[in-house]
Amino acid sequence: MINPYPYFEVKQKSLSFALYKLHRGVIDKHSGKLYTNMLDQLLDSTYSAMNAFGYGDVDIVIGEAGWPSQGDANDPFATMDNAISYNGNMIREILAGKGTPLMPNRRFETYIFALFNENLKPGPVAEKNWGLFWPNFAPVYNASVMRNGSQPAPTPAVPTGKQFCVPKLGVSDGQLQSNLDYACGNGVDCLPINLGGACFEPNNLRAHASFAMNSYYRTKGQTFNECNFGGTGQLTTVDPSYGNCHFL
Length: 248
Fold this sequence. Notes:
Distance between the termini: 42 Å
Keywords: Disulfide bond, Glycosidase, Hydrolase, Signal
Order of helices and strands: HHEEHEHEEHHE
Mean pLDDT: 88
Enzyme class: hydrolase
Low-confidence stretches: 150-160
Radius of gyration: 22 Å
Number of strands: 6
Protein name: glucan endo-1,3-beta-D-glucosidase
Structural class: alpha+beta
Strand order of the largest sheet: 1-2
Number of helices: 6
Helix content: 25-40%
EC number: 3.2.1.39
Largest sheet: 2 strands, antiparallel
Domain X8: 163-247
Shape: elongated
C-alpha cells in the first residue's frame, strides 16, 4: 500500500502534468517511457524500486489519493478547481484500467483521501479541506462519485483575520460538556446544535462545544478571557463553519 500525492510534489511548471491536463509529457531517462501525468510517474517509481528488490509481482494498492480544495494564502495549488481536476481525472483514469507505462492494463484498488473535510483538524487550512463532503454530508464539489449528480455546496470563506473560539486539542469530554453547559446556560443561542438545527450534525460533543464556545466568545465581548474556558479554549482565524452551519 502506498500513498502517492502529486499535490506534495507539484511546482508551478508541473501543475498541468499533475492535474492530467494537456501536457506534452515527460520521457523517463531510464526506461524511455512517456509519462502524461504525475500519479503514473509516482506509481512506476514505486514499482521500479519493488522490482529491483525482487517484488515486482506484488500488487500495489493506492492507500490514499486526493487533493485539497482550499489552502492558505501562500498555497496557490490547494484550490477548488485543482481538486476537481485532479480527483475527477484520477477517478476516471483508475476506473478505465489503463494502468501505467510500466504496468499497462493494471487496475489499482484505490482509496480517496478524504471522505469528509475536517474543520477541526489542526495545521494549515489545506489539512482541513481534503474531503469530498462536508461534515453534514453535503458534497463539497462533484468529483464524479455522486450517483445522483448532486451539485457542490458553496466553498467556505478564506480566513480573513476574524477570530473564532474553539476547544484545544486533547480537551476531555467532561470539560467539553462543562463548556457547552456554561455557554448555553449564559445567554448563548444553542438551538442550532439541537436536533434538527443547522449545526446538529456532526452530532458529537466537540462539534457542539465548539459552536457554543464561539457563540459565547462572540456575544460576550470577543476578548481572550471570553475564550479561556479554564484554559481549554483557543482562538483561530480559520472559520469552522461548514455547509449550512454558520459560526458567528
